[in-house]
Each structure stands twice: as C-alpha cells, then as structure tokens.
Amino acid sequence: MQARAPAPSSSSALLLSNVEDPEPHDTDLPPPPMSLLTIASYNVHKCVGTDRRFSPARVTEVIAELGADLLALQEVDRRFGRRIGLLDMVELERRTGLRHVPLSMIPQGQGWHGNALLFREGEVTSIRRLSLPGGEPRGAASVELRLRGVRLRVVATHFGLLKQHRLQQCGAILELLAQEDLPTLILGDLNEWRVGRRSSLLPLHQSLRCSQFSPATFPSRLPLLPLDRILGWPRGLVRDLEAHESALARVASDHLPLKAQLDLEVAAVHGGTGLVPRAA
What pTM was estimated for this model as a whole? Predict the structure, then answer.
C-alpha cells in the first residue's frame, strides 16, 4: 500500500492559497474617469461674511475646500469708486492651482462687473465682455477655453434683482450663445428662486433644455433659496449639483458655493454639432 503524503500545515495552506489566488492589482481596478472636472460658482459678497467681518483670506480657504478645476466668482471687486480686486490672486493660485482669467479692464480689478473666472489647466482662446441690460450695472464674461483638447464656452455672470431685468439679461445671453454652436456652461448668481412659468430663467432653461432644479445656497447660514446656478448645454454636460456646506462656508459669505461635475466626454461628442436655439 502506498503511503499518503502528509497534509499541509495551516501555514503552508495559507501560503499556497495566496499563490493560487493573488490579490487583484491596482491595475485591475477601473481608473477614475478622466473626463470629469469639478466646477463651482461662488458669490463671495465682497469678502464680507455673515459676521460682518471683511476677510479675503477666509474666502480663499473656502475656495481651497472646493477642489474646483473651474470656478466662477461674483462680487470680487469693490462696487463703488474704483473697482479694485479684493482677493490675493497670487496666494489663491498658490493654494489651489487656479489661474485667474484677465477679465477686468481696470489694472487693479479682478472681474468684469465683479465676475471673475479661474481655471486649473487648459488655455483661454477667446474672451468676450458683455454689458447686460437693466437698471443697474451688470455684466457677463464669455470665455472660450480648451480643456484637455475639448472646446468649451463658459459664461460667468451675475443677474439683476428685478424680474423684468433678469428676463432682458436672459435674452442677451441667448443672443450671445446663438452666434456659435458650442458646448456651454453658465455659472453665476442669477438671483432667481422660482421655478416653472414664474421663473425669469425659463427662457434659458427652455433653450438649453436643462433642468430647473438647483440646491439652495442663500442665505448661507440657513439656505432656502437657489439663487446660484450652474447650467449646461448639451444635456448631460453638468451633473451632481450640490451646495458646499462647510462650517467655514456658512460664515465667509452670505452665499454658499455651488458645485457640480463637468463631463468633458459629453462636450467632446457634441462640440459644434448641435444647436443652441435662438431666443424668440
């Protein structure tokens, strides 16, 4: 009778098990989607917080929390007198890697009618500055970017306080968009909280074919109103909208930042192939 081989010890069995069934390597896991970028819009309220304290450094900390690749800011300049910028853009770039698009026509200014745009990587290929209609000075900056080889139009703006002025401003933006078919983002404080037919933003939503839903961002301590918006065309360009509700964000400004994900694959597929309808 042939003798049986001795059974392996528990330690030997464990060693053999590890050899036969190795752990999956990192290369076996799906990589994170490279087409997604974090985008945000933030009304910094001229760097005056809900505690009435002027603190550009505190606003910079909130911006660093966002981890944004593309960021629109509102109220970055003094409103009265000379429109001097309030943020330390050199320090902001050092902290976040975000570069400031030169929108101001004033040497010490940082925005166009207080609207600033910053981006982490890519290149600016064109800038258009638009003075919006209405009873108070308002503007929009349309910046064409090339991000990872994809063309994208970004409109940074801040609408007026009155509904009739916001309707006029929507019309001006739609006329601008109709000049070229291009994947488009609109970021800013649009000063509208209503939805449906009562909303002054209805022409924008209908033309861009995007949802009217947006998280509440105002007032920052107890957000009830969705004044800040991130809109995108074509459908699917923008997703995962959320308000950034950190403890610091609740005090640094009277608005919370609004964040979303930008899908560059959608922009690449639709670049220059669809139509943004003209305003009626």
Answer: 0.85
